[in-house]
Amino acid sequence: MSLDDKPGAGPDRPPAEPSTPETRQISDAQTMRALSHPVRIAILETLGVEGPMTATEVGERIGESPTTCSFHLRQLAKYGFVEEAGGGKGRARPWRMKTLSIAIRGHDSPEAELAAEVLGDMMLERQRDRYRTWQNTKAAYRSEWREAAGEDQYVVYLTAAELKQLREDLSELIHPRFEERLTDPSRRPPGSAPVEMFLLSYPLSPPADYPPAGTAATDNPRSAS
Fold it and tell me: Which of 33, 142, 180, 189 is least enclosed, having the fewest CB within 10 Å?
C-alpha cells in the first residue's frame, strides 16, 4: 500500500463515481497500530484490487467470517480508511476504499517510529508472499505475461532531493494513466489483470558528509570548518 485527502461525499448520498485520493499519509502511532492487523491489511488489499464489497464478499476472498470482516471494516472506517459505498443493510452493505494507497511516515516520535516499523514489516512480508506466489505459479501463465513481468534493479548516485523527486515522477507517470481502472472496471481493457509494481528505494551507504558510524545524524547539515 503508499498514502492528501480530498473532501468526500456526505454520508447520506455517496457519489456513483467517488473521487478517490491517490495517497493517504499516516504518521501517528495510534493509527498505525490500528492498521497493524493481518485481517485489516487483507481487507484493504482486497478492496483496493476488487473495488466495493460487502463483509460477506470480503470474507469469502480472504478466508474470514462475515462477522470478523464486519468488525474490522468498522474499525477501518473509524480510522478513515474505508467508507460505506451506499446501498444494502447490515452485512450486505458494500464498503469501499477512501484512498488508493497508504504511505507510512513514522519519524515524529520513537513511538511512531516503532509503530511504523511493525506495520511496514507486515506489509513488506505480504508483498514478498505475493511475489513468491507469482514465482511459484508463473508457469501457468501464457508466455506474453511471463515475458512482460520481471525484476529490475538499478544503482544510481542521487541526492535526497533527487530521490524524492524521482519517486514523485514515477507516481505521476503511473497513477494518472491507470488509476481509473481500479475504481471503474469498465475502463479495464480485455485481457488485463491486476499487476503489482513493488518499488523499494534506499541508500546503500550514507553520504560522505554524514557523521561517523555510531553517531546519530541530525537534520542540520554539518557546518563547514
Answer: 189
